[in-house]
Amino acid sequence: MIRIGDQVYALDDPAVLAGIAGLVLAVVILGLLVAAMRASLRSARLTEPLSQQLAHLGHRVQHLSDGQQQLSGGLTHVSEAQAASQANMLKLMEQRLTEVSARMNENLQGSATRTARSLGDLQQRLETIDRAQQNIEKLSGDVLSLQDILSNKQTRGAFGEIQLNDIVLKALPRDSYTLQATLSNGKRADCLIHLPNPPGPIVIDAKFPLEAYERLRAAGTDRDLNEAAKQLRVSVKAHIKAISDKYILDGETADGALMFLPSEAVYAELHANFPELVRDGFAARVWIVSPTTCMATLNTMRAILKDARMREQAGAIRKTLKQLHRDVELVVERVDKLNTHFNQARGDLEGIGTAAERAGKRAARLDNFDFEELEPGEAAQVVALRSSSNET
Q1: Whole-angstrom distance, CA of residue 203 vs CA of residue 184
Q2: Which terminus has fewer CB within 10 Å in the chain: N or C?
Q3: What is the DSSP letter of 198?
Q4: What is the DSSP letter of 187?
Q5: Which residues, 6+ apart, have CB-to-CB distance to 207 below 8 Å?
Q6: Low-confidence stretches of the chain (pLDDT beneath 50)
């Protein structure tokens, strides 16, 4: 209930409620108006500097627009200058690229030529290397075959005999030696040189103590070295004794023989470290030779054979010289006779030349009517000329 003066109003009365609502609404509207007026005043005060700033901002924008126009003109000028510079740069780059391309083409052509030449040289060298490799492989096979040959005593002996035969064949005439000659004691020598007496026929026998030498080379301790040296001494002494007993025969061969070693290394080893073996050979009249010294010895024998044959043929040579002297005398006699004939022929030729010259002179006088005054005795010999009337 609400009392206003004398009037009492009930709160649930619709009219009261409507009045209260209208009053509240009016108060609210009034408050809103007051607030709006205050807000407008406050906004006016706030917008005044903002408008000033906007005006100032407008002036700045105008300045910026002017600067932008100037900048646009500058940019246009710069763009044109840049375009011209780019055009010049492109032209210069095109020229440079053309020059560089030409140089690169020349360099590439030169490089291609050099590369082709190098490849050709490389191909030739590779072919040479291939041929050398083939030769090496072939040589390796030959070396292996040689090792197989030398590993067997029988083939090793045959190898020494073949090498000796080749040396003898190159050094001596074919009729001055006999290969595999059989002596009166039934022993067969590798080679018998038919030297005159003295010294008489001399035997060359090939020996090859390879096993003892290889053991000597492979020795790693003093004990092995001593054992190998002992084996080599025994082997060489046995060869020397065998040659001395078999191939030195009184009245049939020379009082010495040659032992051929088909290895320069073994020969050098004997002379360097086993001089007592060489002395043993001298004592037994067995001279040890290598391929080199054997060739020198055979050349000396060749000179001996040549001198002996010249002595044997001295009578035949004198007879042949006498016949040659007679032939020379006959040639001299025939040359003298032929010289006489030449002199006679020369005289006849000179007479013929004189007569021909005389006949030529007379023919010339007749041709030129070159008649001299006739002698009185010659007038009768001249044929009289008939007149032209008589001829008709």
Answers
A1: 13
A2: C
A3: T
A4: -
A5: 160, 239, 243, 259, 260, 261
A6: 142-151, 371, 374, 379, 382, 385, 387-392
